[in-house]
């Protein structure tokens, strides 16, 4: 019976050591994958920020064009109205 208990303790110790080694490998692999994912995610976020800024700049330019067109048209209309009223 003592021999079986000794063998059982040996197997338990071996199993515990094997589990610890497997867990250490799993943990290292998980850390590596998380680091790779983080780098990829930061790259994607940077790309999205760049695209967002570019699109925002294009919208700003378009808005300024429309504002300029609106104000020029308004000023020409007012100038024409003033000339028409002055000559009348």
Question: Could you please describe the fold and organization of this structure?
Answer:
The structure is a single chain. The protein has one helix and no strands. The mean pLDDT is 94. It has one domain. 98% of the residues lie in helices and 0% in strands. The protein is mainly α and 88 residues long.
Please outline what is shown here.
With 88 residues, this protein is mostly helical. The protein has one helix at 2-87. It is rod-shaped, with a radius of gyration of 37 Å.
Question: Would you spell out the secondary-structure blueprint of this structure?
Answer:
Blueprint: H1 2-87
Q: What count of structural domains? A: 1
The outline comes out as rod-shaped
Query: Which secondary-structure class do the elements indicate?
Result: mainly alpha
Q: Tell me about the biggest sheet?
A: none
Estimated radius of gyration = 37 Å
Mean pLDDT: 94
Report how far apart the termini are. Answer: 125 Å
Low-confidence stretches: none
Helix content: over 70%
Based on the structure, what is the oligomeric state of the protein chains? single chain
Continuous helix count: 1
As a percent range, the share of strand residues is under 5%
H/E element sequence: H
Total DSSP E strands: 0
């Amino acid at each position: 019976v003592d021999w079986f208990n000794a063998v059982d303790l040996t197997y338990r110790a071996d199993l515990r050591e094997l589990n610890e080694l497997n867990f250490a490998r799993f943990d290292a692999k998980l850390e590596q994958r998380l680091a790779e994912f983080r780098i990829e995610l930061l790259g994607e976020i940077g790309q999205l920020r760049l695209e967002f800024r570019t699109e925002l700049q294009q919208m700003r330019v378009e808005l300024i064009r429309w504002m300029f067109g609106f104000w020029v048209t308004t000023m020409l209309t007012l100038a024409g109205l003033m000339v028409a009223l002055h000559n009348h």
